[in-house]
Specification:
Layout lengths: L1 H6 L17 E2 L2 E2 L6 E3 L2 E3 L2 H7 L2 E6 L2 E6 L5 E3 L2 H17 L1 H10 L2 E5 L6 E2 L5 E5 H4 L6 H19 L8 H18 L4 H12 L5
Parallel strand pairs: 7-8, 8-10
Antiparallel strand pairs: 1-2, 3-4, 5-6, 9-10
The structure holds zinc ion (ZN).
Zinc ion binds next to helix 6 and helix 7.
Length: 208
């Protein structure tokens, strides 16, 4: 999608000649009213319908065409206290960790309170993150720690999304994810005991 966007060329309406170019089809849908131009080996397409069709917004402001990606925060599934704390955790990322926030919006659809035992996790290959009742009931269920946990599971979702799970060992995947936890906790000024706990967990997965 990014490569396609880079290849896309802006066309302003006053620059359009009266002749029409090739049909514009985006994700299988024909845009019959879209004016395209084929000229000097280049195809020019109107930026607005094209960008909007692939999830971007377009604006014309201060003499510039601005294109930005629509971000959709994950849906939070659980009781009201769960929703409140997870919402605050996402807010911390939105305000302090824009890269992690964008990744979260791009790779995770839902964050859910899970009644299953075991580790917090994500649906391998999927876009769901699960936080356990064990975390919910612990003194770590505060926005800063939940933010780090969400980032950890987002990293796993990205590892699967990019196929790193096929070329990296389980330990290397975990080591990398815990590294992001530590960064987030440090950036958000988490208490030292919390950071130390994650460092201990990370060391269990240290690749040889
Ligand atoms: Zn993990």
């Amino acid at each position: 999608m990014r490569k396609f966007l880079l290849a896309m060329v802006l066309v302003l309406s006053f620059a359009l000649p009266s002749w029409a170019g090739p049909a514009l089809i985006i994700n299988g849908a024909l845009y019959p009213n879209a004016q395209t131009i084929e000229q000097d080996g280049m195809v020019y397409v109107p930026v607005q319908p094209t960008a909007e069709a692939i999830g971007y917004e377009v604006g014309f402001e201060d003499g510039a065409v601005k294109i930005w990606q629509q971000l959709k925060e994950p849906q939070i599934i659980g009781d009201s206290h769960f929703q409140e704390v997870v919402g605050q955790a996402i807010g911390l990322l939105r305000e302090n960790e824009p890269v992690s926030y964008v990744n979260l919006c791009q790779y995770v659809d839902t964050i859910e309170l899970s009644e299953q035992q075991g580790r917090d996790g994500h649906n391998n290959g999927g876009r769901q993150v699960y936080l356990t009742r064990e975390l919910y009931d612990s003194d770590r269920f505060i926005p800063v720690y939940v933010a780090a946990t969400i980032v950890h599971e987002t990293v796993h979702a990205m590892q699967f999304g990019w196929g790193f799970n096929r070329v990296m060992t389980e330990n290397a995947l975990e080591y990398e994810a815990y590294g992001h936890d530590i960064n987030i906790l440090t950036q958000l000024n988490a208490p030292q005991w919390m950071i130390d706990g994650i460092v201990t967990s990370q060391n269990k997965y240290k690749p040889n």
